[in-house]
C-alpha cells in the first residue's frame, strides 16, 4: 500500500497566499477598468503588497515573480529607449554650443544637489545618532569582504564602449550613452555639409524613439501589478526582528531623504522653476513610486521620461537629454545621503571622533565619488566604500548595515529619480522649453494609458 502524501501547513499557506494574491490582482484590474487614477492604484498596490507579505510571511515570497516580470519588462525597454532618445535629442540641437551649455548645466546641477544631500545626510546622522547602542563586536562584521574600489584608469576604460552590442546586453548604460552621442554628433556634423544625406537616418531615429515611447506606455500599464509583487516580496523577506537592531539607522536614512526631497527639491522647484511644489510632487508621484519599489534608476527611467514630458510639460529634447544622464550620474541618495550617514554610523560604533575637517572630507568624497563610480554596478556600495576609505574609517563596519540595504535603497533610489525630474524641470525652464500654462492646469495626462496632451507641442518660450 502506497504511503499517502499529506499537504503540509506550509503548502496550504503558499496556496492561500497565491489565492489571495490572485484576488488582489483582479481587484487592481477592476479598479483600472473603473478608471481609478494611476497614482492611487500604485499606492493601493503598495499597501496590499505590504499587507499580504506581512500576513503570510515567507509563504508569500513566490508572489515576487510578479515584480520580477515587471522589472524585466521595464529593463527590456531601457537600452533601446536610451539609445534612440539620446540620438534624437542631440540631433535636434542645431548649434553645438547649445549642446555644450546644456551638458554643463545638467552635470553642475547634479553635483551641487549631491553635495547638499551629503550635508543633509551628515547633519541628520549627527542629530539622530543611529550608531549608539550597537556593539563593535557584532557578528555581522565578522568575515566581511570589502568590495574592490575601481581605479580611475579602470573607471575610464569601463566608460569607453569597446563593443556597444555587448554593453547593451550587459545593461551598461554609460557606454551606450557615449556610443549614441558619437553617432548623434556625426549625424549633426554630416548634416551641416549634406542635409539630404542624413535626413533618412534622422527621420528613422525620430520615428524609432516615438515607437519606443509607445512600447514604454504599454509596459507602464503593468506598474500596479509589479509594485504589488515587489512590496509583497519585501514584506515577506524582512520581519520585525531584522529591523529592530538597525531601526535608528533606517529612520536616519528616511528622515534625511525626506528632508532633501522637501527642502532641497521643494526650494529648487519653488524658487528656481517658480512652480507650486505641492503640484510638482503630485505630478512626480509615478516616478517616486516606481523608483521606491523597483530600487532601480534605470528601471524608473521610462516612467520618468513620461512624467517629465507629459506631466511636467518639459520638451522631449530636454527630457531625452537630462533623464538618461540623470539615471547614470545623479545619485543624491546613493552617493550623497547614504555614504554620509554610514560614515557617521560607523564612526560612532567604533568610537572614532570626527572633526570639522573629517566632515568636509566626507562631503567632498561623497560628491566626487557619485560621478567617479558612474556605470559601476552597486554604486551605493562603491560610493560608500570610497568615502569610508578617504575618511580613514574601518570598512568592516559597513557589514553592519548591509542586512537592511534593500529597505534603505528604496528611499535613496526615490531621491535619485526625483532629483532627475527636478533637474529636467529647471533645465527646461532655463532653456525656454517648459510649458508653464500646461503645467498649472489641474488635470494631468494619465501616463500609463498613453493619452496625448491637449497641447501636443511642449516646447514654448516663457
Give an account of the 3D structure.
The chain is globular. Residues 137-144 and 448-462 have low confidence and may be disordered. The chain is built from 19 helices and no strands. With 462 residues, the chain is mainly alpha-helical. The protein has helices at residues 9-33, 38-56, 65-91, 96-128, 152-159, 164-169, 173-193, 195-220, 223-237, 240-244, 247-272, 277-294, 297-311, 316-329, 332-349, 356-372, 379-391, 405-430, 436-439. It has one domain: Sodium:dicarboxylate symporter (Proton glutamate symport protein, Orthogonal Bundle). Helix 1 packs antiparallel against helix 2 (38-56), helix 4 (96-128) packs across helix 16 (356-372) and helix 4 runs antiparallel to helix 18.
- Strand elements, count: 0
As residue ranges, the low-confidence spans are 137-144, 448-462
Q: CATH superfamily, called what? A: Sodium:dicarboxylate symporter
Task: Indicate how many domains the architecture comprises.
Answer: 1
CATH topological fold name: Proton glutamate symport protein
CATH top-level class: Mainly Alpha
Gyration radius (Cα, Å) is 23 Å
Which structural class should the secondary elements be placed in? Answer: mainly alpha
Q: Please, how many helices?
A: 19
Which range does the strand content fall in?
A: under 5%
Name the helix and strand elements from N-terminus to C-terminus, one letter apiece: HHHHHHHHHHHHHHHHHHH
Principal-axes geometry comes out as globular
Which CATH architecture would you pick?
A: Orthogonal Bundle
Please outline the major beta sheet: none
Distance between the termini: 85 Å
How much helix, percentage-wise, in residues?
Answer: over 70%
State mean pLDDT (0 to 100 scale): 79
Amino acid at each position: 500500500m502506497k504511503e499517502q502524501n499529506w499537504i503540509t501547513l506550509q503548502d496550504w499557506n503558499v496556496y492561500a497566499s497565491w489565492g489571495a494574491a490572485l484576488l488582489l490582482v483582479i481587484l487592481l484590474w477592476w479598479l483600472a477598468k473603473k478608471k481609478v487614477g494611476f497614482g492611487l492604484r500604485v499606492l493601493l498596490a503598495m499597501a496590499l503588497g505590504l499587507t499580504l507579505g506581512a500576513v503570510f510571511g515567507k509563504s508569500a515570497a513566490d508572489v515576487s515573480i510578479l515584480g520580477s516580470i515587471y522589472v524585466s519588462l521595464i529593463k527590456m525597454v531601457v537600452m533601446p529607449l536610451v539609445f534612440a532618445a539620446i540620438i534624437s535629442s542631440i540631433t535636434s540641437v542645431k548649434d553645438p554650443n547649445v549642446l555644450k551649455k546644456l551638458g554643463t548645466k545638467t552635470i553642475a546641477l547634479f553635483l551641487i544637489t549631491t553635495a547638499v544631500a551629503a550635508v543633509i545626510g551628515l547633519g541628520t546622522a549627527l542629530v539622530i545618532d543611529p550608531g549608539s547602542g550597537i556593539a563593535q563586536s557584532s557578528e555581522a562584521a565578522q568575515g566581511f569582504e570589502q568590495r574592490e574600489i575601481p581605479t580611475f584608469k579602470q573607471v575610464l576604460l569601463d566608460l569607453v564602449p569597446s563593443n556597444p552590442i555587448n554593453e547593451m546586453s550587459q545593461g551598461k548604460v554609460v557606454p551606450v550613452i557615449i556610443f549614441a552621442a558619437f553617432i548623434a554628433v556625426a549625424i549633426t556634423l554630416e548634416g551641416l555639409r549634406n542635409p539630404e544625406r542624413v535626413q533618412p537616418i534622422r527621420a528613422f531615429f525620430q520615428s524609432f524613439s516615438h515607437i519606443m515611447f509607445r512600447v514604454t506606455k504599454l509596459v507602464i500599464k503593468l506598474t500596479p501589478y509589479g509594485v504589488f509583487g515587489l512590496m509583497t516580496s519585501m514584506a515577506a523577506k524582512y520581519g520585525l526582528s531584522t529591523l529592530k537592531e538597525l531601526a535608528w539607522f533606517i529612520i536616519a536614512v528616511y528622515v534625511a531623504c525626506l528632508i532633501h526631497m522637501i527642502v532641497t527639491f521643494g526650494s529648487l522647484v519653488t524658487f528656481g522653476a517658480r512652480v507650486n511644489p505641492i503640484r510638482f510632487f503630485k505630478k512626480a508621484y509615478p516616478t517616486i513610486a516606481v523608483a521606491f519599489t523597483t530600487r532601480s534608476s534605470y528601471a524608473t527611467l521610462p516612467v520618468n521620461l513620461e512624467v517629465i514630458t507629459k506631466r511636467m510639460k518639459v520638451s522631449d529634447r530636454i527630457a531625452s537629454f537630462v533623464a538618461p544622464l540623470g539615471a547614470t550620474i545623479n545619485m543624491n541618495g546613493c552617493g550623497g545621503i547614504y555614504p554620509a550617514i554610514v560614515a557617521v554610523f560607523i564612526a560612532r560604533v567604533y568610537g572614532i571622533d570626527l572633526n570639522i575637517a573629517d566632515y568636509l572630507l566626507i562631503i567632498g568624497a561623497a560628491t566626487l565619488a557619485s560621478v567617479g563610480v558612474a556605470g559601476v554596478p552597486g554604486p551605493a556600495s562603491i560610493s560608500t566604500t570610497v568615502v569610508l576609505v578617504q575618511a580613514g574609517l574601518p570598512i568592516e563596519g559597513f557589514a553592519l548595515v548591509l542586512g537592511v540595504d534593500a529597505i534603505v535603497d528604496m528611499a535613496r533610489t526615490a531621491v535619485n529619480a526625483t532629483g532627475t525630474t527636478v533637474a529636467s524641470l529647471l533645465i527646461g525652464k532655463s532653456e525656454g522649453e517648459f510649458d508653464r500654462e500646461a503645467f498649472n492646469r489641474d488635470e494631468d495626462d494619465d501616463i500609463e494609458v498613453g493619452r496625448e496632451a491637449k497641447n501636443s507641442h511642449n516646447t514654448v518660450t516663457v
